[in-house]
């Protein structure tokens, strides 16, 4: 059935043709390896194809059929642009070890974009979109050809048997079955990759629902191994939210374990879970949190004086983090580093915690989705209640609560002194009720008695400073030398520097107050590129040209309520007295962008001068209705006006000499990649809109 998709397959429109470049068959006909060069017409923006100078891309595919093992392995890699983009894909069909009527199908791929003419983000999104659609069609295509075979009367293929000369040796043996497990939902994703494992029932039973629909059921072994006990309702919520992400999020889909954390945090209310998950994905993208472990090295002051670190695991297999808060000079750390460095360090700790949970899940063979934190308050006194330090602590708690829900399995607070109730009164209102239930507080040496530390941590790994025998490598903390303190101005500049490491900027758009960005072009035929996400509300995107520079911008800092971003700006450049057609001209047709969409595009400049990119509030018709979910308490807490939109954008000007091919047109690609809205539709579809440069 699989071989019938060659040399071309009408069910895969992008698969144009293929040629056999190598073929091998073993003498006993048990092994058949065939290598093909496949020609694909990738669904990419016309501009990108012109820049790359190609209309088609070529992949090399190697199919290895092993009739003895009853397996089919398929490997593919890209030949086109292999020095810029590396794509590797592996698929396998095997027999289920417990039911010979079932075929296990496993598909995985990895994507590594080294460089692509400045369009790395767009190429990533196109590749992920293509791969996701291929996953959904894979089962449909194989079942199509199976049905075709049945209509031709082919319902059975005899198993391979050794040649007659070998029968006497193997008459008592049985074909060895593969042992790969059958899992029917996306599992781990490495780098920018995905994997999909599902069971195809090749017996005569009725056809199953198409993969990915809410009617699907998760494999019981997968649930037990990776997710834990789920009721049918909880399983259904996970599948529906994951499917919604697959349909609208056209980017790196969070793992099931991560999605499940947000569902649990909102008691499996899909609308509320989706809202906080989308807000978190916005935050992760804007501040590049996915790469923090690889790209950020903590300052030496943190490594020397931050009295915390990972220390084995508890009795439930959860990673154990030890924090000697009483020995930590919080005032000194804030004075030497500022809030942002401390926040980033805590984020790196949480990212490391997620990684350790995955490792422990593999080691213990059961789902480990949270960690245990042991906080030793020995030495805590009034200096820890220094106001800026408490302010930094509250901010860190709020960011962690919003973006790492249900990651704290248990918090053990030991040797709480008399001053602790004061600190607890300050921080407890900022901690979620579900999280507070996981706190266990011990005064003095109570942790050594019944119901104490030994109930949760093995005796062999109790740290030495708590009376145990295990040497703990957590730094002892101590006072930060005042010579390392920095001035308020230095810290303020450092804070800005840390936040602006992201290439994206945030802006607020109000009714009657658009946000505008000025780009001065010296050389005609330069290329203005943009990549923006509509975080909230609907906007209209415009591009204008003027021969004269506008007046200095009117700028108002907004978003002071936001604790997870530096706030959005609102800059207006076009003077109220300017007239369209006289003082400035429109060089692109207005583009309406809906909440949650991600838009990428380019404009080839025809004249030098001043170009203005404008994001303007889009008013809905009076009769229009919307089914966007709204959570009143979230909106009330953020105090967001219904006449306010938010965008996150990145712009760049590239010289024409850096491009190849004709630059007479462009495509602005809508992918819904980030799905960044605080409240988004459940049926948002990706689409594209062509804009012609004039």
UniProtKB/TrEMBL annotation:
Residues 198-210 have a biased composition (Polar residues). Pfam families: CRAL_TRIO, CRAL_TRIO_N, PRELI. Residues 167-216 are annotated as: Disordered. It comes from Acrocephalus arundinaceus. InterPro entries: CRAL-TRIO_dom, CRAL-TRIO_dom_sf, CRAL/TRIO_N_dom, CRAL/TRIO_N_dom_sf, GOLD_dom, GOLD_dom_sf, PRELI/MSF1_dom, SEC14/CRAL-TRIO_domain. This is SEC14-like protein 1. Residues 298-474 form the CRAL-TRIO domain. Keywords: Cytoplasm, Golgi apparatus, Immunity, Innate immunity, Phosphoprotein, Signal transduction inhibitor. GO terms for biological process: innate immune response; negative regulation of RIG-I signaling pathway. Interacts with RIGI (via tandem CARD domain); the interaction is direct. Interacts (via GOLD domain) with SLC18A3; the interaction is direct. Interacts with SLC5A7 (via GOLD domain); the interaction is direct. It is found in: Cytoplasm; Golgi apparatus. PANTHER family: SEC14 RELATED PROTEIN, SEC14-LIKE PROTEIN 1. Residues 500-653 form the GOLD domain. May play a role in innate immunity by inhibiting the antiviral RIG-I signaling pathway. In this pathway, functions as a negative regulator of RIGI, the cytoplasmic sensor of viral nucleic acids. Prevents the interaction of RIGI with MAVS/IPS1, an important step in signal propagation. May also regulate the SLC18A3 and SLC5A7 cholinergic transporters. Its main location: cytoplasm. CDD domains: SEC14.
């Amino acid at each position: 059935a699989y071989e019938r998709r060659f040399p071309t397959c009408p069910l895969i429109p992008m698969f144009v043709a293929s040629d056999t470049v190598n073929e091998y068959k073993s003498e006993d006909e048990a092994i058949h390896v065939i290598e093909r060069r496949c020609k694909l017409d990738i669904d990419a923006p016309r501009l990108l194809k012109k820049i790359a100078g190609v209309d088609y891309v070529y992949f090399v595919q190697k199919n290895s059929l092993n009739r003895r093992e009853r397996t089919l392995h398929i490997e593919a890699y890209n030949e086109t642009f292999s020095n810029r983009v590396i794509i590797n894909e592996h698929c396998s069909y095997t027999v289920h070890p417990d039911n010979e009527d079932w075929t296990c199908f496993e598909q995985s791929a990895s994507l590594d974009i080294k460089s692509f003419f400045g369009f790395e983000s767009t190429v990533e999104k196109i590749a992920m979109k293509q791969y996701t659609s291929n996953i959904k069609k894979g089962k449909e295509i194989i079942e199509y050809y199976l049905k075709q075979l049945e209509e031709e009367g082919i319902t059975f293929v005899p198993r391979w048997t050794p040649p007659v000369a070998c029968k006497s040796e193997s008459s008592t043996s049985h074909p060895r079955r593969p042992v790969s497990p059958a899992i029917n939902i996306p599992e781990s994703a490495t780098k920018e990759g995905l994997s999909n494992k599902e069971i195809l029932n090749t017996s005569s039973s009725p056809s199953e629902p198409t993969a990915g629909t809410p009617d699907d059921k998760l494999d019981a072994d997968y649930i037990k191994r990776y997710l834990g006990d789920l009721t049918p309702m909880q399983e259904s919520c996970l599948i529906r939210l994951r499917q919604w992400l697959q349909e609208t999020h056209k980017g790196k889909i969070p793992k099931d374990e991560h999605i499940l954390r947000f569902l649990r945090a909102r008691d499996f209310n899909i609308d509320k879970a989706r809202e906080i998950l989308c807000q978190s994905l916005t935050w992760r993208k804007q501040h590049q949190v996915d790469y923090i472990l690889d790209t950020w090295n903590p300052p030496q002051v943190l490594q020397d004086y931050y009295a915390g670190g990972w220390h084995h695991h508890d009795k439930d297999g959860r990673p154990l983090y030890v924090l000697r808060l009483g020995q930590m000079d919080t005032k000194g750390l804030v004075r030497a580093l500022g809030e942002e460095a401390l926040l980033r360090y805590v984020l790196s700790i949480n990212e490391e915690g997620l990684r350790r949970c995955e490792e422990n899940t593999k080691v213990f063979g059961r789902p480990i989705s949270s960690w245990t934190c042991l906080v030793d308050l020995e030495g805590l006194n009034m200096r820890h209640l220094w106001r800026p330090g408490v302010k930094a602590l509250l901010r860190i708690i709020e960011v962690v609560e919003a973006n790492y829900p249900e990651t704290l399995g248990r918090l053990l607070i030991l040797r709480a002194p008399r001053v602790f109730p004061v600190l607890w009164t300050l921080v407890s209102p900022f901690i979620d009720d579900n999280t507070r239930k996981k706190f266990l507080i011990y005064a003095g040496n109570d942790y050594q008695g019944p119901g104490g530390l030994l109930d949760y941590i093995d005796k062999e790994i109790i740290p030495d400073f708590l009376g145990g025998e295990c040497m703990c490598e957590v730094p002892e903390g101590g006072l930060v030398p005042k010579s390392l303190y920095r001035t308020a101005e230095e810290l303020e500049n450092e804070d800005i520097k840390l936040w602006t490491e992201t290439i994206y900027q945030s802006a607020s758009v109000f009714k009657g107050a658009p946000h505008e960005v000025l780009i001065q072009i010296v050389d005609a035929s330069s290329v203005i590129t943009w990549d923006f996400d509509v975080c909230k509300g609907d906007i209209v995107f415009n591009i204008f040209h003027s021969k004269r520079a506008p007046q200095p911008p009117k700028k108002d800092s907004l978003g002071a309520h936001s604790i997870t971003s530096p706030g959005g700006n609102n800059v207006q450049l076009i003077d109220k007295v300017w007239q369209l057609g006289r003082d400035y001209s429109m060089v692109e047709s207005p583009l309406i962008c809906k909440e949650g969409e991600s838009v990428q595009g380019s404009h080839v400049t025809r004249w030098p001068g001043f170009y203005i990119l404008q994001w303007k509030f889009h008013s809905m018709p009076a009769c229009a209705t919307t089914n966007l979910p709204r959570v009143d308490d979230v909106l009330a807490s953020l105090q967001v006006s219904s006449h306010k939109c938010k965008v996150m954008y990145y712009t760049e000007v590239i010289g024409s000499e850096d491009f190849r091919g004709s630059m007479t047109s462009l495509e602005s690609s809508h992918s819904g990649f980030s799905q960044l809205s605080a409240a988004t539709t459940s049926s948002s579809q990706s689409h594209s809109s062509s804009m012609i440069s004039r």
